[in-house]
Amino acid sequence: MQPDFLSQTSLITYAPKKHERTTFTDISEILLTDNPDEIKWLNTYGLYFKNEFKTVVQNSNLDDFLLKLLSDDEHPNKVILLDNLIFLTIRVLKTDQKNLSSEQILFMISTHSLWSIQEKKGDYFGWIRERIEGNKGVVRKKKSDYLLFLLLESIVDNYLETYQKNAAISSDQLDISRVKPTPEFTSLVEKRKQELFNFKKATLSLRDVVMKLETIEIKGFNNKYFSELKEQINNLLTNIDFELQELESKINLIFSIQGHRLNEVMKTLTILSVIFIPLTFLAGIYGMNFENMPELKFQYGYFLLLGFMFVISLFIVWYFKRKKWF
């Protein structure tokens, strides 16, 4: 198991004038002791290396409570303040797939080190590694709190980019001028609503974590970065809520169109019924075949009855038109 852990683990060490990327041949080489002259970012893919995590924690003299936290298989989103260390766990949407899935990411942050453990291989952090390697921006001049801010911001940016891309597709497919009360259109609307609910759930969880980071008080940890990140998340939530309201309006419009069409059908059937009810009544009266019924032997009785029925029909149609019922 240890060779797998080592192949899935890498370390980036940096300072204003230094950058080094390290892979390991033995687990004893992995040390996260604080060095005020440099920042260490250790990254591991996989949550199942329980024994290896224990060894790293013990070798680096990290808070023993981490052993218990890292042994848990499932973590709700939380922020825990330990001895000069912050333990943070979030569930993140994987947006690089057709169907949205999620993964657990754990962060352990001290003043000069950050250890990230990701459930699945692959992430959104490549641009951060490039900035560290190329000494772009101020990342090398900052501590691990700023690195954590960049990692969380990368997740938020990915959410926003994916949301905007899907929103553009959805806006084209669900254009208000194309609203049709068909099962296919309704299915598209409901599918988009489910995507937005998943996005909103993940974004709300992320905001809760960021809000907790805003209140963290630990030596060497600057929480000012997370106020700006919270605003980004709030803006994304506002956009999601607005689109959800639009989709709800489209669903209501579909029901209104269906109701209007049903009313038109019922109105047509009602008009036809009203026209034919008196005609059916007259036909029923003269179809009883009693021997002494008036006009049965009248030479023009049949034609007079047809004419009378025709006049009744015209009168009903004229009356409906006058009332503007059709």
From TrEMBL:
Reactions it catalyzes: Mg(2+)(in) = Mg(2+)(out)
Subcellular location(s) per record: Cell membrane
Ion transport is among the record's keywords: yes
Pfam families the UniProt entry points to: CorA
UniProt key word Metal-binding: no
GO cellular component, one term: plasma membrane
Transmembrane region(s): 269-288, 300-320
Membrane topology: Multi-pass membrane protein
Record keywords: Cell membrane, Ion transport, Magnesium, Membrane, Transmembrane, Transmembrane helix, Transport
GO MF terms held by the record: cobalt ion binding; cobalt ion transmembrane transporter activity; magnesium ion binding; magnesium ion transmembrane transporter activity
Gene3D superfamilies (UniProt xref): CorA soluble domain-like, Magnesium transport protein CorA, transmembrane region
UniProt similarity note: Belongs to the CorA metal ion transporter (MIT) (TC 1.A.35) family.
Functional summary from the UniProt entry: Mediates influx of magnesium ions. Alternates between open and closed states. Activated by low cytoplasmic Mg(2+) levels. Inactive when cytoplasmic Mg(2+) levels are high.
Protein name (Swiss-Prot/TrEMBL): Divalent cation transporter
Source species of the chain: Polaribacter gangjinensis
